[in-house]
Design a protein that fits this description.
It contains twelve helices and 27 strands. By secondary structure, the protein is of the alpha+beta class. Strands 6-7-5-8-9-11-10 form a seven-stranded mixed beta sheet, sandwiched between helices. Strands 12-14-20-17-16-21 form a six-stranded antiparallel β-barrel. β13 and β14 form a beta hairpin. α1 crosses α2 and α11 packs parallel to α12. The radius of gyration is 24 Å and the shape is globular. The relative contact order is 0.09.
Length: 526
């Protein structure tokens, strides 16, 4: 297949090269500098297309040109402390085109991306995650889910009701560290991986929608995997979860499970239904069934744009299709540029809290910006009276590995002093000690009503979900007497119970019963 790519961009982690010459040392030094820039743009990863002109023309390389170009690449990556693997090979107009994945490997923590698992109850989300992270197939009777369930009732009813995070690690060559360990050892996986995929398992049942929203908004995932049972099709909360990913601009892909127990004609019918939903106005995705390793490479590199929706077909019992899904996850590039946020003030929204014997109070969350070291102080709050308190960070862990420093984009736990367990609430923040935060009760926001059976008016009290904040608010002002499905307006909300830390530009979801809407904070009014 001869294809044409978009012209090369000056920014981003993708570079086109027609061919490389290992004999030109000055040129190799310049290329190493250029590759270092691409690696920084991609958070430690970059893609190189060898045999492509700067205009995106698929020229290709002869066998001798390919040998010399790869020899030159060996020298370049060695200079940078990086490694590469060939992820795709295609025919060009006069030779072969090679797509390389280059990853920094020396003295750097593993590259990290996060994937939220969405989909209807009984679609097999937890089973899929259990198979991926445990390195063992399911027995059809809950074995895989038992490896990742948090509570006894989840095992009993085969239904997740909480948000849980597990990691899938990859070596540079693309091998899965979890498979080699044959068991889930989080710290060992993290230490042995060049790339880590954080799998955020979310509840599928409609009654747990608030938990699902908290997981999506609090983890800020790079991508969403929407899991569909091949024998049932896109039923239940599939549409809602697809809508959430579209509304929050999270690129998503589809994983159709249970293909081993689905007749071919049923699979074809349900695949057609999925494709029809992906093509709906407002969703506007390009369905892309993945059938080969080359398909994986094409799908992964185009995922950050959000238009393409790869579709995978897997069985958690027989293992069919799992190799392609794992290859795809390994190739997925980081979507969010956390390096830009590393120089900002430290901020973490608290997602969970623990009282650890011998350690004391421990909180966890995603570091949204900045960095912090052991021994540094931070501000914790707001408390019920709107105040913030100085606490000290005694220790920190990433995937159960003790670390001296955490930075933007990492999920971490923090052991802190000067606070009691019962004083901490999910949705509080840890902030840079020199910041001057404001506790907010009333704010203005632009909202869009996605669904409402009747009308919304002043006095309406939905629950707002912003990052890990979940609290009732009251609509205290609206420019229109009534708001209905599809309406947009700039309104004023007030928190009902306690002040929160929010900022202009923050996105949130509000809901009450079957009413749902999106909003963006435009002004702090306190």
């Amino acid at each position: 297949m001869v294809f044409r790519l978009e012209p090369e961009r000056e920014d981003g982690n993708l570079e086109y090269k027609l061919k490389l010459d290992p004999r030109n040392e000055d040129r190799l030094i310049k290329l190493a500098t250029q590759l270092n820039y691409r690696l920084n743009e991609g958070g430690g990863e970059a893609f190189y297309e060898l045999g492509i002109s700067d205009e995106g023309l698929p020229v290709g390389l002869t066998e001798e040109e390919a040998k010399r170009s790869l020899e030159a690449m060996d020298m370049i990556v060695e200079n940078l402390g990086a490694r590469y693997m060939i992820v795709r090979k295609e025919k060009g107009s006069r030779g072969d085109i090679y797509e390389l994945l280059i990853r920094r490997t020396v003295d750097t923590p593993p590259i990290q991306i996060s994937v939220a698992l969405l989909g209807n109850v009984d679609a097999g989300k937890s089973t899929l995650k259990g198979v991926l992270v445990s390195g063992m197939l399911d027995d059809g009777d809950g074995l895989a889910m038992s490896q990742v369930a948090r509570y006894l009732h989840e095992l009993k009813f085969r239904r997740s009701s909480s948000v849980s995070l597990h990691i899938l690690g990859f070596e540079m060559e693309g091998k899965t560290v979890n498979d080699e360990l044959q068991g889930y050892n989080e710290s060992e996986i993290y230490l042995r991986s060049s790339k880590v995929v954080v799998l955020v398992d979310l509840a599928g049942h409609e009654r747990y929608l608030r938990t699902t929203l908290k997981g999506v908004l609090g983890s800020m995932p790079d991508y969403a995997a929407i899991v569909v049972a091949a024998n049932a099709g896109p039923i239940g909360s599939f549409r809602e979860h697809l809508g959430i990913s579209v509304a929050l601009n999270i690129p998503s892909f589809i994983v159709m499970t249970k293909v081993d127990m689905t007749p071919p004609e049923v699979l074809a019918t349900n695949l057609r239904k999925v494709i029809e939903l992906l093509k709906l106005p407002g969703v506007n995705k390009i369905p892309f069934p993945v059938r080969s390793e080359n398909d994986c490479a094409i799908a992964a590199r185009n995922m950050p744009h959000g238009r393409i929706a790869p579709i995978f077909f897997v069985s958690n019992v027989t293992g069919e299709g799992l190799d392609l899904l794992k290859r795809f996850l390994n190739l997925l590039p980081p979507r969010l540029n956390w390096s830009e946020k590393e120089g900002q003030e430290f901020l973490t929204y608290i997602d969970d809290k623990f009282n650890v014997s011998g350690v004391g109070v421990v909180v966890s969350g995603l570091v949204e910006s900045g960095s912090i070291r052991i021994g540094q102080r931070a501000l914790l709050g707001p408390f019920d009276d709107g105040s913030f308190r100085t606490v000290k960070v005694k220790s920190m862990h990433i995937s159960r590995v003790p670390v001296e420093r955490v930075t933007a984009g990492q999920f971490a736990t923090f052991a802190i002093t000067n606070v009691e367990y019962d004083e901490i609430k999910k949705g509080m923040v840890l902030l840079d000690v020199d910041s001057k935060p404001r506790a907010v009760r009333t704010f203005k926001a632009k909202i869009r009503v996605l669904h409402h059976p009747t009308t919304i008016k002043v006095g309406y009290e939905p629950v707002i979900q912003l990052r890990t904040i979940r609290q009732p608010v009251k609509l205290v002002w609206s420019p229109k007497p009534y708001l209905r499905s599809g309406d947009k307006a700039e309104v004023v909300f007030s928190f009902r119970k306690r002040p929160e830390y929010i900022r202009v530009g923050d996105t949130f979801v509000f809901r009450e019963g079957r009413t749902k809407g999106l909003g963006k904070v435009t002004e702090i009014l306190d």
